[in-house]
Each structure stands twice: as C-alpha cells, then as structure tokens.
Amino acid sequence: MNDELEYRAVLAVDIERSAGRGDRALLEIRARLTEMLEEAFEASGVDWSACLRHDLGDGLRVTAPAGTRKAALVHPLVPELALRLRTYNRGVAPLTRIRVRIALHAGDVHVSPDGTVAGSPLEVLARLLDAPPARAALAGAPETVPASLLLSGHFYDETVRHGHLGLFPEDFRKVGFTVKEHTADAWLQLPGRQPPAEAAPEPAEAQEEPAGSKTAGSKTAGSKTAGSKTAGSKMVNKASGHGVVYATQHGTQHIRIERRH
Fold this sequence. Notes:
It contains 6 helices and 13 strands.
C-alpha cells in the first residue's frame, strides 16, 4: 500500500428505503442517481472523471481530487443535486423516486495507484451516513425534500462555520450521534426545505364617506368635514363633502377644500 497520505474531501450518498423495490427499480434509481451526481459535480466545478468512486450497493462514495475546494462540495453541489432529485421525482412513479442521505468529511487517506482509497476518514464517513439524526430528519421531512446533509465537525469548522459565499452556518444544527464504536457531533441540514413564511403586514385601511355626510372630528365651513382617527398602528382617514385628503403619513394630514363658484 502507498504510505503517502493525501488530504482529500470525501462524500457519500445513500438511497432512502431502497430495499424491497426489486432489482429493476434499484438498477434504475442507481443509474439516475449517478447521472445526477455527475451533473452536480460538474456544475460545481469539480471534475467528475478525476474523482475516485466506490459503489456502496444502494449508494456511492466519492473521493474528490486533491486540492478540491471543500466549500464547492456544499455549495453549489448539494443544492444542484437536490434540485435535480426534486425535478426527477416529480415525473416518476413512487417506486423509482429517490431521496438520499448525504455525508461529507475530509482527512488524510491512502490512495493506491489503482484508485483504491483507505483510511480512518472513510470510517468516519460511513458512520455519518448511518447516523440516526440524518435518517430521522429525512424520514420526517415532506416528500418534496429530497435529501438530508450531515457534515462532520471537522468539515463544518473548516468550511461552513466561516460563512463564505453560498454557505450559511445558520442553516445547520448541531446533533450528536453514536454508530457502532463512533460517537461524535455533526452538523445537519435539510437542503431545499424552506422556513415558514412570515405573515405579511396588514395593510392600512382607508375609508371614504359619501358626499354630504357628517363625520365626528374637526369641522369646516359649509358642512364640509374631514377627520382622522388612529387605532393601534392604523391610520383611518375620512373625508366628506368636497374635502380631499391628499396624504396621511407619520401623523400628518394635508387636506384641500374645494369650493364651488
């Protein structure tokens, strides 16, 4: 084995609920997932042909080329993959829909001349991929959410925590997990899940009474009246006769009285 260590970023994906779909469906979703991963890597500026890939049966492990910007594996790669998965899922039957768990880590690995990759970072990656918080988050998310993303503490601290372009630390939450002998903290995100929209502010009300009616408030000559009242944060403006209210802002009213000749 090559004794030289190389610092590499490693990514793994696992298809949710792949068991029990039958060989034909599994082969189909594996092929489609590989295609979408390749497109997402290329869209992120990472050379797919230079990546070292290992089949996980119902998923894939990818070792990025040496020198790859780790930030690119979070953004835009993950949103690109999530977009492709969601678009694909809208046009297929439930049997061939794809939702995945994504795990990211980085560290020193052994890379053999034949492309074999070994080392403890791959063990950590495997535990991240099986972490219960990532499984539970995806299982409990709406069907329109196509993926969960779990970053190792090392990956988050080096890459996401600083908030570089396209990376939002506040989109992740810290979770603890234990898988086999591995206990650690990690950072979880559901790509593509939108927070609840804030309620739109209630528009100001405006009312106008028919000409000739009288309104409580200040009076002007000729039975022409104009008044205003404030309820809470709303300003309600009223005009009667030939009085015209031009504006009410910050508590100031401008009223023009039109007189007939």
